[in-house]
Amino acid sequence: MPKQKRSVTITEVANRAGVSISTVSRVLNKPHIVRADTRERVQEAIEEMNFIPDPMARGLGSRNIRTVAVVVPNIINSSMAEIVRGATETLREHHADTLLFNSNEDPEVELRHYQYLTENMIHGVIFITHCGADVDFGRIAGSMPVVLVDREETHPRVDTFIVDDQQAVDIQYQYLKGLGHEHIGMVAGNRMTMGAQRRVRHFRRVLEEDGRVLEEGRMIAYCPWTMEGGRDGFLELIDKMPEVTAVICNNDILGLGAQGAAYEHRIRIPEDISVIGADNCTESAYLAPSLTTLNYPSYEIGRRSANAVIERFGDMNRAGGMVKLPVQLMERKSCGPPRKGPLTANISR
User: Fold this and answer.
1) Helix (H) or strand (E) holding 337
2) pLDDT of residue 64
3) Three-class SS of residue 184?
4) H or E element: which one contains 147?
5) pLDDT higher than threshold 80 for residue 68
6) pLDDT digits over 167-198, tens only?
7) Concatenated DSSP letters for 265-326?
8) Buried/exposed 61-97: b ≥16 CB within 10 Å, e otherwise
9) Distance CA 100, CA 301 (A)
10) Angle at the Cα of 346 (from 343 to 347), degrees rounded to 5?
């Protein structure tokens, strides 16, 4: 009876044979160009370890165009689209194709995408944020480059790029405090996502540093990362926290929804409520009033992510690491001093 095949990485085969990963790949793709004794040693290691060549192993030694998957939770956020643009343009410069997966903020869909990546001809993957799926990055990082964006996780041989959320929330809070606001709430985004969880955690921290307590049931509104979510989250927050004079929105899409809700209910911005966003999506500068926000280096994150994939094609054993990128305040027209007295708008939904 033949031996049961088990999951073995090309790195393990290379270590067993005492050769480089690229040599193993050449044996798989062009064995005639490898010295006979080296080829025999690699083939023996493959047989002993019951190695099943995967797409990454096949692709390392060939000149075929590689395919890199980019997985996003939604495609409506122009800031996220900038990350994708930075990644795809950089990958194209290195003769790599891009395959885009949109999970639509559904954890089950994200898991199906992950399953597809491990079973099909994908040579690398960039995961941009996530929607709560429990994905085993360590498992696939042994056979293809894996890059995480906006996921505060560390794995060996996985590269991670993340915006400095601590700095972001500090800037938002201190800016509003500087305008005189004492009653600040947050439209946080999807409760299941790491982005929302991190920013709420930093909001709690900055309040505590200011001698205050975060009443999460009153001061936080969770919602989908959409304009409709921002609208509903804004109205929920005002309903729960009628004294609120300033709202932190955890991305600009939520901020757009919040401003739309304000217009709908005749709430003046910034005279009645100030709104500050995060990530500086293209539309934010063209609102009336324009949205004060934080400038995220979205395109740069995309380029760095793609370059990390390309670099790992050449060295799968390189140690992974996390890079935090800074943000900058973009002061516009949606924030001002706090109103005097209660909010009189009718916010029935």
Assistant:
1) none
2) 54
3) strand
4) strand 146-149
5) yes
6) 999 999 999 999 999 999 999 999 988 889 99
7) TT--TTTT-EEE-SS--GGGGGSSSPPBEEE--HHHHHHHHHHHHHHHHH-TTS--EEEEE-
8) beeeebbbbbbbbbeebbbbbbbbebbbebbeeeebe
9) 17
10) 95
What number is the average pLDDT over the span 67-72?
89
**What token pair was written down for 103?**
């999970």
CA-nearest of 297, 53, 291 to 167 is 297
- What rounded mean pLDDT belongs to the chain? 86
Residue 3 has what pLDDT?
44
Judge whether 283 and 299 are in contact, CB under 8 Å: no
Q: Report residue 162: phi and psi, to 5°.
A: -145, 145
Does 74 or 308 have the greater pLDDT score?
A: 308
Cα 203 to chain centroid distance, Å, stands at 20
25 CA to centre of own chain:
32
Burial of 278 (0-12, 13-18, 19+ CB in 10 A): buried
Token look-up 């025999």 returns 40
Alpha-carbon distance 260 to 30, whole Å? 60
**DSSP assignments along 157-181, one per residue:** TEEEEEE-HHHHHHHHHHHHHHTT-
**Residue 237 binned pLDDT confidence (cut-offs 50, 70, 90):** very high
For the chain, which domains are there?
A: 10-60 (1.10.260.40), 66-163+297-325 (3.40.50.2300), 165-295 (3.40.50.2300)
Distance CA 84, CA 78 (A): 10
- Parallel, antiparallel, or unpaired for β 146-149 and 158-163? parallel
